[in-house]
Amino acid sequence: MKRTLHGLGPRLLFYSHDTYGLGHFRRTLAIADAIARRCPSVSMLCATGSPRSHSFPMPSNFDVVKLPSSTKDEQGEYTARSLDISFDRLVEMRSRLLLETARAYRPDLVLVDHSPAGMAGELRPMLEAVRRDLPAAALWLGLRDVIDEPSRVRDEWTRGRLFPLVSEVYHRIFVYGVEKVYDLPREYGWPASLRSRLTFTGFVHDGGPRSTPREVRRQLGLKRRPLVAVTVGGGGDGDRLLRSLAQALRRDPRPQFDCVVLTGPLLSESKRGRLEARLHRTKGVQTLAFHEDVPALFAAADLVVSMGGYNSVVEILAFARRGLVAPRTFPRLEQSVRANRLAELGWIESLPDDAPEPEELRARIERALASAAARPGLLSEHLDGAERMAAEVEKALLSPQPFPSAPMAAAGAPR
Cα-flanking dihedrals φ and ψ of residue 90, to 5°? Predict the structure, then answer.
């Protein structure tokens, strides 16, 4: 085993800010699970604001530091999710927790998901402390395939001085996507010094089905009719698509297909109750807050209807026969950019946004079910991002080479 900063087994610290949904934490779990299988001697700790961080099975040698949760209001602004405190005070609390966690845990490697400075800059004190007090520690940044539309990203990263921060702090940058789908450094105008540290890993997902399609259908009491699975990810922002779906299904109370609707654990009880009331007379429709084996459900379905979040789309690409994606367009265009690029490649079908007209949604579902065309299969190399990250961690923490030196001097603004 490689000698570490503290003389014990290697330690990895994840940061997953998780404000609005479950996507960042689920991606982190997928990577942690692959690391646990490949590198069982590595201890892993994740600092996360996810309100549902303990709703998922945890990998071995993995634990969680729960940060007070935040969310976004109707204007897309961050706010405290549960506590009656100002957002500034929430950020201060989280920042102190992050700093003390790093000081006590003394990680050999820090892997930050998506947000280089953390939510509202909360991560900066911790990053400074790791660089100062643990100079041999590796600092890595992991980014999803699409952050947002390019002009907005360039503006936010320039105003927030994120290009200099990434250049000064992070030894390596990983993009959890495929270059031919979305060339992140080119789209966002990254300086050459940052591009040289960047690696595309392929898409990250949390493993294959644990059940067969036949077992899923039996568990749900389904027979041989076509099956449409609908998902809105965590559910916190899925109400628009669910309302369109309810209206589309109510036009014919006896549809020629079965439908399983995953509302997500973050959909409010009041909204879930209204959805169920709208659908209670529609034959063949089931609503579930959560399904323990989403890949198996997708594999059992003839069509998956989804919003355009990273995890949902990647699971469609990995397991589903067909996908129809209705991307959210507020407060970011990330989902729309992703859906459009994948539709151009023929890997999914897409709708303009997450509030399609009921008639259009119903027609697109029926057209997709009637189509005999199968989407082009993805090469496995596009879907093994978690395994590739585990291999990188193994190389960094368990090989005899020394930890990386400090990054180069700060890069300038994007071109």
Answer: -60, -45
Pairing of strands 138-144, 109-113: parallel
Asked if 131 and 161 count as a contact pair (C-beta separation under 8 A), the reply is no
In the β-sheet with 349-350, what is the strand arrangement from edge to edge? Answer: 285-288, 258-262, 227-231, 303-306, 323-325, 349-350
Whether residue 415 is contained in a domain is answered as: no
CA 273, 278, 279: angle at the middle one, nearest 5? 100
Is 407 inside a domain boundary?
no
58 and 168 part of one domain = yes
Q: Which of 322, 145, 310, 357 is nearest to 230 (CA)?
A: 322
Cβ neighbours of 313 (radius 10 Å): 27
- One domain, residues 48 and 166: yes
- 17 and 52 housed in the same domain: yes
- Scanning the structure block, which residue is given the tokens 């400075």? 117
Predicted structure pTM score: 0.91
d(CA 358, CA 382): 34
Q: Which two tokens stand for residue 171?
A: 């030894």
Counting Cβ atoms within 10 Å, is residue 97 exposed (0-12), middle (13-18) or buried (19+)?
A: middle
pLDDT digits (tens, 9 = 90+) for 282-300: 889 999 988 889 999 999 9
Which CATH number covers residue 134? 3.40.50.2000
For tokens 């965590």, name the residue: 234
Residue 264 and residue 268: Cα distance in Å, rounded? 9
Alpha-carbon distance of 217 to 185, in angstroms, equals 43
Amino acid identity of residue 327, one-letter, is: P
Same domain for 350 and 239: yes
Are 318 and 346 in the same domain? yes
Task: State pLDDT tens for residues 305-320.
Answer: 999 999 999 999 999 9
Query: How far apart are alpha carbons 211 and 289 in whole angstroms?
Result: 19
Domains of the chain: total: 2
Dihedral of alpha carbons 357, 358, 360, 365, sign: positive
How do residues 323-368 score in pLDDT, each as one tens digit?
A: 999 999 988 899 999 999 999 998 999 999 999 999 999 999 999 9
Q: Are residues 130 and 65 in the same domain?
A: yes
- State the alpha helices, DSSP H only, in 320-357: 334-344
Q: Any idea how long the chain is?
A: 415
Tokens of 169: 């702090």
Tokens of 111: 């892997």
Residue 31 structural domain: 11-205+383-398
C-alpha 143: how far from chain center: 10
